[in-house]
Amino acid sequence: MHPIRTKFLRRLAKATIPFVLAATAPLTALAAFPEKPIRLVVPFAPGGGTDLLSRAMGITMGEDLGQPVIVDNKPGGSTIIGTDAVAKSAPDGYTLVMATMAHAVNPSLHKKLPFDTDRALAPVMLVGRSPNVLVVKPDSPIKTVQDLIATARAKPGKLNYASQGAGTSAHLAGELFKKMTKVEINHIPYRGAGPAITDLLGGQVDVMFATAAAVAPHLESGKLRAVAVTTAQRSQAPALSKVPTIAESGVPNYSADSWYGLFVPAGTPAPVIARLNAAAKKAVQTEAFRKRAEQEGLAISAGSPDEFGRYVKGESQRWSKVIKEANITAD
User: Fold this and answer.
1) Mean pLDDT by 10 residues, the chain (331 residues)
2) In degrees rounded to 5, what are phi and psi of residue 68?
3) Dist CA 240 CA 228 (whole Å)
C-alpha cells in the first residue's frame, strides 16, 4: 500500500475511534442497568395499602434486578409532592413512583400542578386494580344497592356518604353513583379513611364508598356490612367474593376502580423501562405478592408500558367529566 494512503488511514482510524466509543457507551450503560440501588417513591405515609404493596414489590423486584429497591415515602398534596420529586429526577431508571388513581384525576382537581402529568412521566406497568366497597353498619336498613337508591329518592338530600377526602377514589365512586342513578346524597369528606369509618360506625354518616384495604378488618369482625363493590367484576378477595357489583345490582355499566401503577421520569430510555417492566411482572407473580394483593382485593394486571399509558389516559378523560359535572375542586 502506498505510504501516503497508509498514513491517511491511520489518521482516519485515530479520529474515528473516539466517536465509536462515544456512540457505544450509552449501549454499554443500558446493558449494565442497574448498577446501583433503585428508589421507589410512595406518595403516601408508611403503613397504608400503597406502602405495603410497594414494599412487597420492591423486595422481589430487587431480587430480579440484582440491586435493592428502596421505598421512599413522600406523602402530601394528594400524591403531588412525591410524584413531583420523581418527575424532576434524572431519567435513568433509578427513580420510580407508585402512582394511584390520584395521578389521573389531579389535573382535573387542581388548577395548577408543579409538573405536566402527560409529559413529565413515562408509564412502566399497571400493577393492578381494586374495588371500593359500598359499606354500611350491620343494622342499617340499606341491604342492597336498590335499597340505597329507593331511600335516597324518598329522602332527597337527607342521606350522607363518607369518603377519605375530596377527590379520592371513594369520593369519585360516590359522585359517579349519584350521576348514574340520579339521586341526591350528601358527600362528607374526612382527613383519611380512619375518621370516616369511625363516624360511619358511630352513625354520623349513612354509607361509605371505602377502599377494600381500609374496611377489610371491619368486614371480618362484623362491624360493617358490604353492600356492593365498585368494580366491573366481583372481587376475588375472600371477604368480598360473594358481594355483588353495583353494575349487576341495577346500575348497568357502573365501574370505579382504584389502581396502582409504576411511572419513571419522561425520557428514561426504552430498554431501561422494558427491564423495569419485566422485573415488575415477575414481582407481582410471586406467592408473597399474590397473598398481599389478595388481602387488598387487588386484581393483578401486569401489562406493557403502552397498555398502562392508554389506561391512564382513558381514566383521566372519564373522571374529568365526572369532576366537572359535580363541580369538584381540591384547591
Assistant:
1) 56 56 48 93 83 91 96 89 96 96 91 93 95 94 97 94 84 93 92 86 94 84 95 84 94 92 98 98 92 81 96 93 83 63
2) -65, 145
3) 9
Question: Is it true that the peptide bond before 271 is cis, omega within 30 degrees of 0?
Answer: no
Residues with Cβ within 8 Å of 281's Cβ and at least 6 positions away in sequence, in order, are 125, 302
Map grid coordinates 421512599 to a residue.
Answer: 72
Residues near 4 by beta carbon (within 8 Å), at least 6 away in sequence: none
Count CB neighbours of 244 within 10 A.
16
d(CA 148, CA 285): 38
Domain with 220 in it: what CATH number?
3.40.190.10
Question: How many H-runs (helices) and E-runs (strands) does the chain carry?
Answer: 12, 10
Question: Terminus-to-terminus CA distance in the chain, angstroms?
Answer: 77
User: In which domain, by residue range, is 41 found?
Assistant: 32-130+257-325
Report residue 225 as a C-alpha cell: 356490612
- Assess whether 151 and 209 both reside in one domain: yes
Domain CATH number, residue 112: 3.40.190.150
> What cell numbers appear for 289 in the block?
405478592
Positive or negative, the Cα torsion across 255, 171, 320, 328?
positive
Give the separation between CA 98 and CA 61, rounded to whole angstroms. Answer: 13
Three cell numbers, residue 79: 400524591
Spatial neighbors of 190 by CB under 8 A, at least 6 apart, are: 162, 163, 164, 165, 196, 199
**Cell numbers at residue 193, please?**
379513611
Residue type, 148: L
318 φ/ψ angles, rounded to the nearest 5 degrees: -65, -45
- In a domain? residue 37: yes
